[in-house]
Amino acid sequence: METNQKAKVGIGYGNNRIECVRKAFAALGGIQQWVKPGHKVLLKPNIMAAQGGAQITHIDTLKGLYLLCKEAGAKEVWVGENSVCGMSPRIQMGIIGYDRALEDIGMKVIFFDEEDWVYRFRGENYCLKDIHIPKSLVDADVWITVPVAKTHEACLTTLGLKNSHGILPDEDKARHHRGRPFGNSSLWEKFVDIYAISKPHLCVTDMFHAMEGQGPAFGDIVEMRLVVASADSVACDATVEALMGFENLECPLTKIAHKRGLGIGDMNQIQVVGENLLQHRRHFKRALWHPDSDRPYYGIRILAGDVCHGGCQMIVRYLIDLSHILFKKMERELGPIYILVGDNPPPPPEKAFILVFGDCAIYSTWHYQYRQRPKLIGPWWKPRKGYIDVQGCVPVQLEWIRSMAHLVEGYDPMVSLGDAVSVVEADQVTFAEGISLEKNPRRWNFDREWARKYAREIQESKPPRYIYAANESIKGQILRKTDPEVDRILREAGVEPE
Amino acid sequence: MKAEKSMEPKTSFRRSSTLVFKNYSEEELIGWAHEKVKKPWEHMCEVAALAVAGQPVPPDKFTVEIPLTPFRVDYRGAFYLMRDGVNLLVGEPCNLFTIILSSDRKRILKAYIEEARLNNFISLTPLDPQGAWTKKTLEMIENNDTHYLTQYLNEYFQKERNLGVNWVKIANIQFFGPFRDVLEHFEENRSFRDLLEGYWDAIKKAYAEKWIEFLPEPHIFARIREVIHDEIIQYNHAHLPSGDIPEETGEEEYPSEPRVVLGLVGRDYKVAINLSLSHPYELVLNQDMVESYPGNDLKGFARHLSEKTRAPLSLALAADPALNLLYEYLSRPFPLRRMDMFILYRKLFTFIKNFGTWWNLSPRPFFLKERVRFWGKLIGYDITRLPDQDLPDLLVDGLGLAGLSARYALVIVDGDKPFAAIIFEFFDGALRKISTFPIDKLEPAFAGLTKDRDDLRERLFRAKQIMWAEDGWVNFAFAVQKDLINAIFDFLFKRSLTSIPKLIGSIGDLRLMLKLAKGGVAMCPDFILKRLEPWVKKKGRLNIYPKLIQAAFESKRKKPRGLLYVRSTIIVAVILALIALGLIFLFG
Question: Which residue from A minimizes the CA distance to B396?
Answer without folding.
Answer: A325
